[in-house]
Amino acid sequence: MDPCPFVRLTVGNLALKIPVASKPARSVVHPSSSPCFCKIKLKNFPLQTAVVPFIPPENQFPDGQSHTIAATFHLSKSDLDKMAGKTIFSGKVCLRIAIYTGRRGTTCGVNSGRLLGKVSVPLELGGTESKSCVFHNGWISVGKEAKGSSAQFHLNVKSDPDPRFVFQFDGEPECSPQVFQIQGNIRQPVFTCKFSFRNNGDRNQRSRSLQSEPSGSRSWLGSFGSERERPIKERKGWSITVHDLSGSPVAAASMVTPFVASPGSDRVSRSNPGSWLILRPADGTWKPWGRLEAWRERGGSDGLGYRFELVPDNNGCVSAAGIVLSESTLSSNKGGKFVIDLGANSSSPSGRGGGAGNACSPGCSPRGSGDFGYGLWPYCMYRGFVMSAHVEGEGRCSKPTVEVSVQHVSCTEDAAAFVALAAAIDLSVDACRLFSHRLRKELCHQQDLLV
Where in the sequence does UniProt note compositional bias of the Polar residues kind (predicted)? Predict the structure, then answer.
């Protein structure tokens, strides 16, 4: 089945030049002391904010400079259709940018920045799902100064085709659902999931969902996790295996560090997160591909904090430093999107209030000692948008929708690994639920139900 058409609209190469005033004035902006930022808005999409660097008035923006992304918008086929179906009342589709001087944020409910000017870039989105298009690349005059002395704002606005495979769980992951590939109105089953409990105390007692797995993985998987004495408040041993339609296991997510309540509290803390390993079959056994950590944030957001990193292929050792691909927060109450986007603006909203997380860490940037650098890891192939998974909040029926960039799927196991990761994110919402709240029966061990 063909992938779904998507378009990636990027705004980048931002810069600001402000002419030097011949006479001192209170309204004059001094680049050395006044930072700038801008707010970028596309109809029906969340507002994005980015820093705007100053450059000297006599300098020209280098033509050969690499594209530095400040904001990214992902447009599905339905988004493109809505924008193409404009009426005389809706007007032309435009990208609108407001440029401010001063620091971002608010003071006493009032924006601290001073509006310098606004620019608008018309967008002709027809045909962009099949070819790249540059809508603007260069300088635009902003502000209300006299002609020839106004500030100059540089930006690049372009779109690129970004086709994706779209998958949807037919039920909640803990209910062992089917997974369908979606294209328009067509739904085709491609995977089945099996949720089960792994008995950490007995390596020979494997969950039913793993009976078809290679025997070489049995002692390996049970060796992970903390050996310390377990407190009473913990959630452990969850596992979900993804099978293809022939019944062969093609990916798995296994909870390897229990989700434990911090002493004197009912929440999983950031200092002691629970974790999952995302596993792929290789050479007759399971091998770790990624590690997902999750915890419950404190404060007003009370969200689900998470960090996902790739695990180096170091003879099965998962203690080495990994490459962090995504670290953010989504709303525990409303749910949101887990996103791996290595071209996203790190200063864009992390979703703490809105429930949509963004990848904030640079790709191919190892945590820890830095023993693994650029070019030494095959994982540096991950670029741009990689995947997203939409999950619901606590107490809501969650059937995760997963989008995976075509460029990162070369086989069934590739897609299955992202599906397993999406299941782990969804299950983490429940694993990080306050321990004063009881989980649904599918997530409880049999002995827990008898208590």
Answer: 207-220
Phi and psi angles of residue 408, each rounded to the nearest 5 degrees, phi first: -110, 15
d(CA 308, CA 329): 12
Q: Is the distance from CB of 61 to CB of 15 less than 8 angstroms? A: yes
Please say if the pLDDT value at position 424 is more than 70.
yes
**Encoded amino acid at 287, one letter:** K
Matching residue, tokens 């004197």: 264
The dihedrals phi and psi of 85, each to the nearest 5 degrees, come to -90, 35
Alpha carbon 96 to its chain centroid, in Å, reads 24
Q: Write out the DSSP string of 218-270.
A: HHHHTT-S--SPPPSSEE--EEEEEEETTS-EEEEEEEEE-EEPPTTSSS--T
**The tokens of 307 are what?**
């960090």
Residue at 204: amino acid letter: N
With a CB cutoff of 8 Å and minimum separation 6, the contacts of 44 are 79, 82
CA distance 59 to 17: 9
* 448: helix, strand or coil: helix
Asked if 244 and 416 count as a contact pair (C-beta separation under 8 A), the reply is yes
The answer to whether 245 and 192 are in contact (CB under 8 A) is: yes
What gap in Å lies between CA 268 and CA 416, rounded to an integer? 28
Q: DSSP readout, 98-142? A: EEEES-SSEETTEE-SEEEEEEEEE---TTTTTS-EEEEEEEEEE
Whether 391 contacts 336, CB under 8 Å: yes
- Identify the CA nearest to 71 among candidates 12, 142, 24, 136: 12
Tell me the whole-structure pTM to 2 decimals.
Answer: 0.79
436-443: list long-range contacts, CB under 8 Å, 24+ apart.
Answer: 436/266, 437/394, 439/235, 440/174, 442/172, 442/174, 442/175, 442/195, 443/174, 443/235, 443/238
The pLDDT of residue 288 is above 50: yes
Q: Identify whether the C-beta of residue 30 lies closer than 8 Å to the C-beta of residue 36.
A: no
